[in-house]
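Lecture notes, unit on binding sites. The following record was shown on slide 14. It pairs a sequence with S-adenosyl-L-homocysteine.
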Amino acid sequence: MTTLQAEIAELIRQEGPLPVGRYMALCLGHPRHGYYMTRDPFGSGGDFTTAPEISQMFGELIGLWVAHAWRASGAPARFRLVELGPGRGTLMADMLRATRIVPGFREALSVHLVETSPALRARQAATLQGVAPVWHKTLAEALDGPVIAVANEFLDALPLDQFVMTPEGWRERLVGLDAEGGLCWGLGACASPDAGEQGTVPIGTVFEAAHDALSVVTQLAGHVAREGGAALLIDYGSLRSGFGDTLQAMRRHGFADPLAEPGEADLTVHVDFERMGQAALKAGAALHGPATQRELLLALGLAERAQALSLKADAAQRAAISSAFDRLIAPGETGMGDLFKVLALSQRNLPLLPGFDLHRLPDRG
Ligand code: SAH
């Protein structure tokens, strides 16, 4: 039993079963035993790998997107480059390196990182020496004046609550204790989540209320609509809204039971980009996408970048570039190309942002 498991069991004995969101928040963010609080989970020795850790090309292209969005916003003389959940700081470092050549861009920006984990803040400080980032615990602190924000695999780490359709109506899914004192799933009293205009759904249907992610998107959208700028959200999830239990645990690059080792496995959920887009529109922002990661990276010139890097590379490096290229854009379960979606929000009246020329509104197929 992990230390956190014992603490959660005690909490349940005292306060009763926990909503899924409370359980997720404890597993990921408990100050002493939370998954992100204590470790660097990335890379081959860790639990999972992210696009910036796969290849420098990812951050370089996202950097060029950011520079483009800055110019399209009227090239403000001062703006905040905000990253949410920066991991090892790799994406930020690659973005900054690739945009050195953009006139006026580096002079205009200050770097703001939204990060709760002390372990990862230390890692980011080491990666970003010479950049003088400012760290924030919450997004609200990071937002001031024109902002260009980037979040890769951040929304998927934010807690959500789940509801299950039963013969009595929606009931909240809870984490409780079984007869042996282990963690188990259960159902709470009848509840009425705001599940949208879906009509009747079959018994057993799961609805996920992603209140934290929706609140982040609403804040970002309202801010860029008022103060100028844009935000780029990249995550795995769906283009269209749907139902289903998407909570998953990752440990050592494989799936694990979300209740088995609280605090030792990464817990994530899939992002519903249609709902995120609707929240952004409601908050006054313009929407670009959602599109797939493959569409965005190819439109930003991934193939050309891979070719340019290969020209200067030896045989082993060329093989690594080619395998990273495939992984970033390949369709299906093995690659990230279709699994990952991208959505941009911006102030209104911005020209089309690169990568979203196939501007796809959520109400179309
Ligand atoms: N963007 C990085 C890391 C993704 S992992 C990459 O692509 O490699 C998720 C990141 O979000 C980690 O840095 C984690 O510590 C941070 N994080 C998770 N929940 C958070 C929260 N509620 N507030 C701020 N940061 C959070």
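Take-home: The domain at 35-159+209-346 is CATH 3.40.50.12710 (Rossmann fold).
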